[in-house]
Amino acid sequence: MKKRSKGTVVQEWAAQITALRERLGINQAEFARRLECSAMTVSRWERGLLRPSAEHFIQFGNLGNQDEAWFFWEMAGIQASKMIESLSGSRGRHKWIEAPPLEKAHAGATAARVGKITSFVRLPLLKVVAGSHGVMGDRRSNLRSIVPTQIIGAPALWCPNPGYTSLLRVRGHSMEPLIRNGNILAVDSFQIEREDLYGKIVVASHEKRGLCVSRLRRYEGLDVLEGESREHDPTILNKASGWRIMAKVLWWISAAP
User: Fold this and answer.
1) What's the pTM?
2) What stretch of H or E contains 9?
């Protein structure tokens, strides 16, 4: 491959960032919100004046289609051959799970009545754990920058924003009996506006206490995070507390007893 000059490389990734944003159909301000940076930063990226960090390149890849993903991940320093090797299980650590052709699966007496099952999407199971009240979760500032350990198929109807939907595990008991220790949550990191999430279950993040699964409530103008069991005091959600909403919990699954 012919060696490219620094200016050419910069022009290429800058154009790719712009193309990604335009394909998503959003402006620089919305793009910045999703990436948790400023609109000025996005502008400087697209003009080639500022090179994104490796974490941001990974985020671009998570937002992109297959071709875009590999370009951005490689810009972050991830070798495609190494990732495929790891996900294929050749090292015995991870296994890439192909979504089965479930649209062809029918059972029993319903087979004659069922036409076509809804389409499926591939969701990444992240190597990250969210705690519940009283239990520390993993410290992560952005779910979209975490490389998955497995890919699991789920009905598209369950995922309103599939590009922002991922899976993670829960640790702790304060969300029981609703959500149990070890359950897998499907979370949507696009839905983070508080006014739309009151009464909903969310994943919040704190720099020191990590990820936490809670129910978001509003009492007399005060936003709080609280568990289902109420054995722990609720946590106030404001700038001073250091907590912020990371994602809305869409649904969860667990192994049969």
Assistant:
1) 0.59
2) helix 6-24
| Residue 177 preceded by cis peptide, ω within 30 | yes
Residues 204 and 114 placed together within one structural domain of the fold: yes
**What is residue 89's predicted lDDT score, i.e. its pLDDT?**
47
Q: At what angle do helices 39-46 and 6-24 cross, to 10 degrees?
A: 130
Q: Residue 184 in 3-state DSSP?
A: strand
Domain that residue 197 falls in: 102-253
Are 166 and 252 within 8 A, CB to CB? no
User: How far is the C-alpha of 198 from the C-alpha of 200, rounded, in Å?
Assistant: 5
Contact 173, 180 (CB under 8 A): yes
Buried b (16+ CB within 10 A) or exposed e, 74-107: ebbebeeeebeebbeeeeeebeeeeeeeeeeeee
In a domain, 219, yes or no: yes
Mean pLDDT of successive 10-residue stretches along the chain, which has 257 residues: 42 89 91 87 93 86 78 74 48 39 42 53 90 89 78 88 90 91 92 90 90 92 88 84 90 78
| Counted domains in the chain | 2
Domain of residue 30, CATH code:
1.10.260.40
